[in-house]
Amino acid sequence: MGIEVHYRTLSGEEVVYSLSGNSEYEDVWLPIVVKEELGFIDVIASGGLPVSPDDCEQICREFVEIRKALFETGKETQRVDRCIATLRDYGGGNTRDVYIG
C-alpha cells in the first residue's frame, strides 16, 4: 500500500490518484522526510491525514521540499507536482475534502 491523494471537485466528483508506493516511500522519500524533518509527511505516511485549511500551506511547503530533493537526485516529480497543485487549489477554494494517505 502506498500514499494516495483523495479530494472532491467543487462539482462533487471524487478524484483519487497515487502519490507514492510503499517501497518508493521507504527507499526514496523517507530519508528526505527524516533529513528535512517533514512532520506532516511523516504523519501522512504513517496513517493518512485529512488536510485542514489551517495546515494546507505547511503541508504544501513540505511537498515542495520533497519535490526539490527528488528533482536534485533526478527522480520523477510529476506526482508530487500534481499533489502540490491539488493543495494549492484547495487553499484557493477550488477543491474540497482533501485527504492524503
Describe this structure in words.
The protein has 101 residues and is an alpha+beta fold. Helices cover 54% and strands 22% of the residues. It is built from four helices and four strands. The chain has a four-stranded antiparallel sheet. A hairpin with a 4-residue loop joins strand 1 and strand 2. Helix 3 packs antiparallel against helix 4 (78-91).
Mean pLDDT: 94
What is the CA–CA distance across the termini?
10 Å
Strand content: 15-25%
State the shape. Answer: globular
Helix content: 40-55%
Instruction: Describe the main β-sheet briefly.
Output: 4 strands, antiparallel
Number of separate helices:
4
Note the run of SSEs as H and E.
EEHHEHHE
Spatially, the strands of the biggest sheet line up as 2-1-4-3
Alpha-beta classification:
alpha+beta
User: Low-confidence runs (pLDDT<50, min 5 residues)?
Assistant: none
Number of strands: 4
Radius of gyration from the alpha-carbon trace, in angstroms: 13 Å
